[in-house]
Amino acid sequence: MLTRTSSVDSLQVKEVAFCSVIQLGDSCIINGFSRALAVQREAEIFFGDEGNFPSYPIFKRQLPLPPITEKISIVRHNLNPIIKVNNIKVTAVSSSAILHVGNSKHISMEARVKHIRQLLLEGHEQDIG
User: pTM of whole model > 0.85?
Assistant: First the structure.
C-alpha cells in the first residue's frame, strides 16, 4: 500500500456515536459493527424481556457479500504523495460509519437496525395509563 502524508487544516465534528470512526492518517484494517432496536410505541408500556437481540432473525442472518468478478486496472501517478484537506465540517457520524482521510487496505462497516412499531388495538386506549 502506498503511504502518503495526510494533512487536514481544520476538522469540526459535532457528534460521533455507535461504533463510528474518525481516522486521520493511514490504516490497515477498520471494522465497525453496530446493532440497534428502534421501538416506536403508541403507549408507554415496558416489558422485562425487551432488548434481546438474538430474538430477532435479522441480527443472526449472514451478511450477503456478492463476489467481485470484474477485473480492475488502476494506474496512479502520485507526484506529490500528500492528501491535503482544507476544511471538514461534519454534523454527525453514527451507526458504524467512517470519516477517513488517508489510505486504507480493508474497511468493513455494518449496521443492523430492527424497527418495531407497536400500536394500540382500537378501543383499548382507555385501558392504559
Answer: no
Q: How far apart are CA 81 and CA 94, in angstroms?
A: 30
Distances (CA, A) of 91 to 29, 30, 95: 25, 22, 14
Q: Are 85 and 7 in contact (CB under 8 A)?
A: yes
pLDDT in tens, 16-72: 988 788 988 888 898 888 888 888 888 877 776 677 888 889 899 998 888 989 998
- Amino acid letter for position 96: S
Rounded to 5 degrees, φ, ψ at 93 are -125, 120
Hunting for cell 442472518 — which residue is that? Answer: 61
Compute the distance between CA of residue 127 and CA of residue 100 in angstroms, rounded to an integer.
52
Domain ranges of the chain: 5-127
Closest of 114, 120, 117, 110 to residue 34, by C-alpha: 110
